[in-house]
Amino acid sequence: MSASGLAVHQFRYEQKSYWRNPTSAVFTFVFPLLFLVIFASLNSSSTIGSMGGLAYNQYYVPAIISFGVISATYTSLAMTLTIRRDSGILKRLRGTPLPASALLGGVVLNALVVSGLIAALVGGTGVLFYDVTFPGHWAALIVALAVGAASFCALGMAVSSLIPNADAAPAIVNGILFPVLFVSGVFYPVNGDSFLGRLGALFPVRHFVMSVFAAFDTRLPSGVGHGFAWRDLAIVALWGLAAALVAVRRFRWSPSR
Amino acid sequence: MVAIAVDGLRKSFGELEAVRGVSFEVQEGEVFALLGPNGAGKTTILEILEGYQVRTTGSVSVLGLDPGAAADAVRHRIGIVLQEASVEPYLTVREVLTRNAAYYRQPRGVDEVIVLVGLEEKAAARVKTLSGGQQRRLDVGLGIIGRPELLFLDEPTTGFDPSARRSAWELVRSLAQDGTTVLLTTHYMDEAQALADRLAVIAKGQFVATGTPDTVGGRAEAAVRIAFLAPPGVAVADLPIADLPAAATEAGGVIEVRTLDEVRVLHTLTGWALERGVALDGLVVDRPSLEDVYLELVGEEIAP
């Protein structure tokens, strides 16, 4: 079988593993949906002054889509790869002819499919129950999700390569993520000119949120070719590339002793 | 044909030299055992041959290839069973075997492997529900699913109950009969004795003896021990062996005679006993066991 054929082969088994493991489903699906329902219900009549009186949920739902994608990619990969490395699963697979690209390809494909699902679920809930308008920027939305998901997969792999063992994984993975989520305006809008806004702009999360939000931004002209936040997309992609370089250089197959 | 050739192999981890100049060859179809205490360097040697670790110096050839340079080509033709079982917990036995079979060019049938490792009743069970021994058997199944020419087994039966160990031995024997070359590590003498065509005893990163289980450490040439309970009124000096190449001692009411000419000594002793009407109660004739030889060879390394 070719490497790409094997990646698809791996993906099928990644899917089985994924849906049978209750913790991964909880982390990826329940948290974003919980945040969505709580905050969107609390703020359903609020507007955002710094965005010209935009309805809160018109911003918040894309932000939670981003959070869901980050959970499905960065968090999931950093945890899964660390746990598999620590328990010797990666080492065992390394001893078979399975190419590394197919092994990681299967894991990444799985993360992309889960990302798509969570985006559809959160976006659909927003449109159906919280008066969110999707202006039809499909191309922009798909590009933003694809660039973001791929980049945060790379970030998950890079962080996994820096984690010493599985016990340390949750603390390190979430310890990095949550402060960044807060300064990046995931749970409430952050003005880009404020201190928090400038701080958040140093990290990829804010740019990812802004690129997904752009596809939902009803203030932008409608029609094909609109809804792209090119600058934010480029910054997310650069983070992804840098992370991929770190991951390639630092990736370890065997548990550290 | 030579399946494995190792010459002057050394491996250092910083200051620590884990493998200190090891050379050996394993022929195709042979079962070769590395026998030694924990920390002797067995696993390090195995992992260098498997392509997991890079050697410091020396030459290594596995199936005619250098595992350090051509790891991918080697991995198509070898099977690896690591010391610790580690398989995705949420997949079933059959799923994991089916998945891994696709990695190889001419895999064994999944059902065939399930039968070989005795997991018929657990084929549909998730890996996380298996007992330690069952996971280990699945591990062995994953090691042979690719129909390897050469199988590495790192302490394959550690933690097995006696009957599981017997069936694991049967499996290794039947693989060897089909022409699979096997390199295994173990610290069980009986395992080496039961399985290995040849073995090397390793201590502190060096081979201290090599040979067959019957000859290693000079076992075949070692003195035979003849022992019996000292008959009443008989002292060592009364024994009729003064002219024979034998040495007798008495301790705790047991007389021990050590000799290289056991046939003549035994004949003399029993003839004398019959003639004099003396009973030789508890008569035993034996050689140092593989375990005795092993303990002597590595004795100082494992003493507390």
Describe this structure in words.
The complex is a heterodimer of chains A (257) and B (304). Chain A is globular and about 60 Å long. In chain A, helix 3 packs across helix 9. In chain A, strand 1 (47-48) and strand 2 (54-55) form a beta hairpin. Helix content of chain A is 72%, strand content 2%. Chain A has 10 helices and 2 strands. In chain A, strands 1-2 form a two-stranded antiparallel ribbon. By secondary structure, chain A is an all-alpha fold. Chain B is of the alpha/beta class and 304 residues long. Chain B contains 9 helices and 13 strands. Chain B has helices at residues 42-50, 71-75, 93-101, 110-116, 132-144, 162-177, 189-195, 262-276, 290-302, and strands at residues 2-13, 16-27, 31-35, 57-62, 78-81, 150-154, 181-186, 198-203, 206-211, 224-229, 246-251, 254-259, 284-286. In chain B, helix 3 (93-101) packs across helix 4. Chain B starts with a strand and ends with a helix. The model of chain B has no long low-confidence stretch (mean pLDDT 89). Chain A binds chain B through residues 1, 6, 9-10, 13, 16-17, 20-21, 84, 87-89, 91-92, 94-99, 253-254, and chain B through 50-52, 72, 75-76, 80, 82, 84, 86-88, 90-91, 95, 99-100, 102-104, 126, 139, 142, 146.
Briefly, what is this?
The complex is a heterodimer of chains A (257) and B (304). Chain A is built from ten helices and two strands, in the order H-H-E-E-H-H-H-H-H-H-H-H.
In total, the number of strands of chain A is 2
The backbone outline of chain A, from C-alpha atoms, is globular
Mean pLDDT of chain B: 89
H/E element string of chain B? EEEHEHEHHHEHEHEEEEEHEH
Q: Indicate the percent of residues in helices of chain B.
A: 25-40%
Widest beta sheet: strand line-up of chain B:
5-6-7-3-8-9
What is the first-to-last residue Cα distance of chain A? 34 Å
Query: How is the largest sheet of chain A built, in terms of strand order?
Result: 1-2
Unreliable stretches covering 5 or more consecutive residues of chain A? none
